Amino acid sequence: MLEVMSRRSGDVRCGCRRIRKTGVMALLDHLGISVIDIERGRQQFHPVLEALGYTLGTDAPHGISWDNGDETELIIFERRADADDMPHRHGDPGWQHLAFAVGSRDEVDRLHAIAVSAGWTPVRDPKAYPRFNERYYASFVEDDSGIRIEFMHNPPRESAGG
Question: Which domains, from first to last, does the chain contain?
């Protein structure tokens, strides 16, 4: 069952039920992503994840991981030998995008520039998204395998500066 923590209340929502948060809950332990070319994946993911505070963990021929201390691990895997070499197409079933929440608009801009320098394709340059709310600021980039990530800043209403 999908669990989502509400930013405002600290409650956990499971489907239609709401459960009061009683302790620390890891929202994401690890994420595995298959890429077309593992070396190209390393070139594209490493600078971005390092800038987000992740450190290189396992570096094996068919998989590379980065972790954020005891929090989250992101792993890229070489695609299976029998898989096609077509990038994922945004909007197809499966992966949509992964959003990294950061502390400021300047941080969104900085991460976007790092990603583009590492070979990610800009999908949407950093800008405000008033259709979400007046505080939402984000950018979107995509790697050679069609993996899309978002850098976003969405401060709580009471601390909307930055």
Answer: 28-159 (3.10.180.10)
Q: Are 19 and 6 in contact (CB under 8 A)?
A: no
In the β-sheet with 63-67, what is the strand arrangement from edge to edge?
A: 30-35, 73-78, 63-67, 55-60
Reduced to 3 states (helix: H, G, I; strand: E, B; else coil), residue 8 is: coil
Please give the single-letter amino acid code of residue 26. Answer: A
Task: Report DSSP letters for 95-120, one per residue.
Answer: ---EEEE-S-HHHHHHHHHHHHHTTP
What digits encode the pLDDT tens for the residues 1-52?
Answer: 223 333 333 433 333 333 345 566 546 778 999 999 999 999 999 999 999 9
- pLDDT for 46 equals 97
Q: How far apart (Å, rounded) are the C-alpha atoms in residues 79 and 71?
A: 25
